[in-house]
Amino acid sequence: MGIEYYQDILLVTSITNDEIYKLNPTNGEEISSFASPSNPMDFAWDGNYLWNADYGDDKIFKIDMATETAIEAHDSPGKYPSGLA
Fold it and tell me: Residue 11 is part of which domain span?
């Protein structure tokens, strides 16, 4: 399960229901959530896009946070990718 700071919120993955949650970092309250492309294991924010290591499809997805959708998919160099920086 991954966690990343994005703007003024925390993003947290859930591999049990393929969701990415937006949380208030002060109190942990859920702000909203959106569907991940598949099984989100971990991610990193690069200042423009969210990169999602996908455990289920062995892919690395580039997510546009304005639309909360994957705009690119890349094959992972190995099985079960996790840990991005």
Answer: 3-75
